[in-house]
Design goal:
By secondary structure, this protein is α/β, with parallel strands linked by helices. Helices cover 35% and strands 18% of the residues. It has helices spanning 47-62, 70-80, 87-108, 112-115, 135-147, 196-214, 230-240, 259-266, 284-288, 304-316, 332-344, 358-363, 389-393; strands at 10-18, 24-31, 36-40, 124-132, 153-157, 191-193, 220-223, 247-249, 271-273, 294-295, 321-324, 350-352, 364-366, 369-371, 374-376, 385-387, 404-406, 412-413. The strands form four sheets. Strands 4-5-7-8-9-10-11-12 form an eight-stranded parallel β-barrel, surrounded by four helices. Strands 1-2-3 form a three-stranded antiparallel β-sheet. The longest helix is centred in the first third of the chain and has 22 residues, at 87-108. The chain is globular and about 60 Å long. The structure holds (2S,3R,4R)-2,3,4,5-tetrahydroxy-N-oxo-pentanamide and cobalt (II) ion. Cobalt (II) ion binds at residues 223, 225, 249-250, 275.
């Protein structure tokens, strides 16, 4: 690269915690030449663990290192810890990795996707989120998403007999923002309830009603959010086949990777898994045996751009595509990292997009654009995100937890 110094030592690395509506952890790395890179380290409900891991154990190792050596830094942080994997470690490594890619692309004067091989497409298809307590409310919510420009929609529904349920907004969305934020600011996690039998009875009828009303073309997605056993997941996938889902997500907890063999034997509904995974090893059986169709990890939670690229290249050999996680708990920095990857890789599938609140967008000013159902990372050098310290300082950290589930008899259940 003419004009770019061969080495670029890191002068400072700061861990920034802010809460513009929800908590975010950001790593800001600056080189001796004053080039700044940002990385997202947000782990919903466990934010301060990653902040401490970075502050106490990673920042001291970064000072003086060459910011250009991204692969070496990734391997050094992964292997020198001795203790491998885990969401806290991998979110911390992800933040460093994103910040270094941001710096490298800024030094090159290019948007990051150019360094990843350049654009493989003109826009990134994104899906929105609809939900309803009953079918009429759900249909209104889907129509609101279509009016906001989404061309594919995730559909979540209340279930008779279940009081509080993942993915169902308290009221229908009135703006571009899907109004469902699962983490709640409270000293203790909120308790919700669950009934798999009631859910399995109810959901196919809801999709039947949606297809009858909206026709066969609109891509529909659904998230079962880890709550079923493999045989229940198989039954759901089979029952939903007539409604032609784009995907069924997290149909069963997938730390039991072999469980997906059973699901796969019984259904052709496409499967998406991986938002809680943090390394390529969590996908080993799922990808090699072609038990899934979409990789769901967030760049933030799976070790950054370097590691996600590796997972997606591995998946590509098996015709498995990307479906990168994009909830509001991934910051605009993590979202931008996803968009640069989405634009560059060949095996792009779809991108989740949950619009951040105005307060969040004021702290993280992003170059990415959204129009006619497609996202684009923009063409500013680097990731295209700047961090506004003044805006961030108006939003101090507040403890918040994700909810958890209990069955009717009091047993704790997957949420
Ligand atoms: O519950 O990001 O598909 N999306 C999801 C998310 C997760 C949250 C957890 O932090 O399942 O809404
Ligand atoms: Co999900």
């Amino acid at each position: 690269m003419p004009g770019v110094a061969a080495t670029s030592p890191i002068r400072t690395a700061e861990v920034l915690v802010t809460s513009p509506g929800r908590n975010f952890v950001t790593l800001r790395v600056m080189t001796e030449d004053g080039v700044v890179g940002l990385g997202d380290a947000t782990l919903n409900g466990r934010e301060l663990a990653v902040a401490a891991y970075l502050t106490e154990h990673v920042v001291p190792l970064l000072i003086g290192r060459d910011a250009h050596r991204i692969e070496d830094t990734w391997q050094f942080l992964y292997r020198s810890a001795y203790w491998r994997r885990g969401p806290v470690t991998m979110a911390a490594i992800a933040a460093v990795d994103m910040a270094l890619w941001d710096i490298k692309a800024r030094l090159a004067g290019m948007p990051l996707y150019q360094l990843l091989g350049g654009a493989s497409r003109t826009g990134i298809m994104a899906y929105g989120h609809a939900s309803g307590r009953d079918v009429p409310e759900l249909l209104d919510s889907i129509r609101a998403q279509l009016a906001d420009g989404f061309r594919s929609v995730r559909v979540q529904t209340s279930v008779p007999g279940v009081n509080k349920l993942y993915g169902v907004a308290a009221q229908p969305s009135t703006s571009g923002r899907y109004d469902y934020e699962p983490a709640q600011r409270a000293p203790l996690p909120a308790e919700e309830d669950w009934d798999s039998a009631a859910y399995l009875r109810h959901v196919p009828g809801v999709f039947d009603a949606v297809r009858s009303e909206l026709g066969p073309e609109l891509p529909l997605l659904h998230d079962a959010h880890h709550r079923l056993t493999p045989i229940q997941a198989a039954r759901l996938g089979k029952a939903l086949e007539p409604y032609d889902l784009f995907w069924l997500e997290d149909c069963t907890p997938a730390e039991n990777q072999e469980g997906l063999r059973l699901v796969r034997q019984h259904t052709t509904t496409p499967l998406a898994i991986g938002e809680v995974f943090n390394t390529i090893w969590d996908y080993q059986t799922l990808i090699r045996e072609q038990l899934i169709d979409y990789v769901r990890s967030a760049v933030t939670h799976a070790g950054g751009i370097t590691a996600m690229r590796r997972i997606l290249d591995y998946a590509a050999q098996y015709q498995i595509k990307s479906g990168i996680h994009g909830p509001t708990d991934v910051s605009p920095v993590g979202m931008s990292a996803a968009l640069h990857l989405d634009l560059a890789i060949h095996n792009f599938g779809i991108q989740e997009y949950m619009v951040h609140s105005p307060a969040t967008r004021e702290v993280f000013r992003s170059s990415f654009t959204w129009a006619d159902g497609y996202l684009h990372p923009g063409d500013e050098p680097g990731l295209g995100v700047t961090y506004d310290d003044d805006a961030a300082s108006r939003h101090p950290y507040q403890a918040a937890y994700l909810p958890f589930n209990r069955l009717k008899d009091g047993t704790v259940h997957d949420w």
